[in-house]
Amino acid sequence: MTAIRPARIDELDILLGIVRSTIRQMESQGIFQWDDVYPDRATLQKDIEKRHMQVIENRGEVAGMVAINDEQSPEYQEVPWQYSEPALVIHRLIIDPAQQRKKLASQLMDFAELAAADAKCESIRLDVFVWNPSAITFYKKRGYRQAGTVYFRKGPFLCCEKHIAKISPSFRH
Description:
Layout: E1 2-6, H1 12-28, H2 41-49, E2 53-58, E3 61-69, E4 87-95, H3 104-118, E5 123-129, H4 133-141, E6 145-152, E7 155-163
Parallel strand pairs: 4-5
Antiparallel strand pairs: 1-2, 2-3, 3-4, 5-7, 6-7
């Protein structure tokens, strides 16, 4: 049984442990998207304090997280987005490597997309590291389209968006 809920500050060490495990897994696959600089403890703590971080529990254990808000990196200003604002933005979708392949990331994305629809957003936006093929495939299968490319400290990231305003009420859980 899974549940999605706001992250709690007392879970910060658990969440940071999931981030570190994920970084090790990604590096073993030749994906150097994250490191000790980002995402760090302060970033996760800020997400929790602002109530932007949601966690997914699997059988009572925190198995992953996602930050959802309307905060866009300044680099997003240069992207030729197809859909206008308002838009929600996905940040730091992370599933514990020991909990992957259980559809947990899909459940977090379902949650985020419903949150965007409930907030009457036109779209949901995100960026994905160009050298993370599984993440690119995941978002593409969910209907996200590439809108442009931005550059952060670790290199190029694809900016993707999905039209949200027309999610069917029957899709809701």
